[in-house]
Here is the input.
Amino acid sequence: MESAAPRPSRRTHASQYEFRVLTLPRSTSRHDVRRLLTEEAEYGRWELARLCLYVGGHRKVWLRRRVIKVASTL
Here is the structure.
């Protein structure tokens, strides 16, 4: 029986992103949430990774953006 080559870990891929978690109260309207996420995407270069709507009505939003590592030129 031959062993398969080891697969690369998914954690290395996830480490290329930086995450930000927002908790929004129940009183926040859908329109305001959409506006907030649009502003974060346009100006902060964040993208929506995950959104959970809980039974109580509050939302938890995970935003991510790619970490750009700059190589030194000196």
